[in-house]
Amino acid sequence: MSGTEIPIGTALVLCDQVIAEEGTHKKTLVGTFNNIKVSALPCTYPAMAVFASLTNGRGLTRVTLRCTTVGDSKLQFELPLDVAMPDPGHVSELVFNLRNVALTVSGIYCLELCAAEEPLLETRFSVQLSPP
Description:
Layout: E1 8-20, E2 27-32, E3 35-38, E4 43-55, E5 59-69, E6 75-85, E7 92-103, E8 107-115, E9 118-129
Parallel strand pairs: 3-9
Antiparallel strand pairs: 1-2, 1-4, 4-7, 5-6, 5-8, 8-9
């Protein structure tokens, strides 16, 4: 981070899609969820989105969205993003559009948003095998 302020995370939501309204840039989160049922593992989940909101930053801030499995903390993926935060009162809304997400095991997965390697927010979702 180029500023001295530490960003504060205000939202981290997993959903099917985030729609940004033209003109106002207001966001609509479509199909929020925290549970995925699959017929077999490993599998590839075709699409999901993660909406995040941050405030209290200053300058160019590197944030990272990490996904790990709970229990063994195995890293599933990591996505860095540089975010311009003009002043501490500014709210930055981020959208991570994820495609072809590899789900390797059943259980709980953790999505964590970090800035300067410090965790800001966390949310979890479960992956379960559905009965045949």
